[in-house]
Amino acid sequence: MWAPLRAEGGRSLDLHRHKSSLSDVRERTLIAVKPDGVQRRLIGQIIQRFEQRGFKLVGLKMLQATQDVLSEHYCHLRTKPFYGNLLHYMTSGPLVVMVWEGHNVVQTSRTMVGNTNPAEALAGTVRGDFSIHVSRNVVHASDSVEGAQKEIQLWFQTKDLLDWDLWDQTSTDDV
């Protein structure tokens, strides 16, 4: 039988009634499977890692990125010598762009994805396990909470993001 959690002082914590307040403290991040990851059929394995970590997928699209969107996304790299090659690569095939939600999701995702340079990425990270070269490193992950917010707004409209509750043991009360 379900019993409410008790806070200090015996006050009941009704988690069912306060679900929305719990989701308000959740971060969101943008993860994109780059053209080499799509071509190598790694989408499912990458999604599985984030799901197994306990993060919630709230937005997903497969698309062919435009130069305009990529120019805005990578505006901080415009002065780098590899910028033109990066844009060419990122438009060479489809991307799978996702928004993940969870506690500390931005920093945890960066750790899960691994170092940008696959030669320096640890085994067990996405790039350590799947990347071939620094210019073909399979996946993008937002680098900060602020960066994630900007990237999510660039790639998704608000209506494209779903606010849904994860099913858990307490949900059996409703069956």
From TrEMBL:
SUPFAM superfamilies assigned: Nucleoside diphosphate kinase, NDK
Catalysed reactions listed for this entry: a ribonucleoside 5'-diphosphate + ATP = a ribonucleoside 5'-triphosphate + ADP; a 2'-deoxyribonucleoside 5'-diphosphate + ATP = a 2'-deoxyribonucleoside 5'-triphosphate + ADP
InterPro entries assigned to the protein according to its UniProt record, in alphabetical order: NDK-like_dom (IPR034907), NDK-like_dom_sf (IPR036850), Nucleoside_diP_kinase (IPR001564), Nucleoside_diP_kinase_AS (IPR023005)
Domain of life: Eukaryota
Keywords, in A-Z order: ATP-binding, Cell cycle, Cell projection, Cytoplasm, Kinase, Magnesium, Metal-binding, Nucleotide metabolism, Nucleotide-binding, Nucleus, Transferase
Subcellular location: Cell projection, Lamellipodium; Cell projection, Ruffle; Cytoplasm; Mitochondrion intermembrane space
Gene Ontology terms: cellular component: lamellipodium; mitochondrial intermembrane space; mitochondrial matrix; nucleus; ruffle
Membrane topology note: Peripheral membrane protein
Protein name: Nucleoside diphosphate kinase
Gene source species: Poeciliopsis prolifica (blackstripe livebearer)
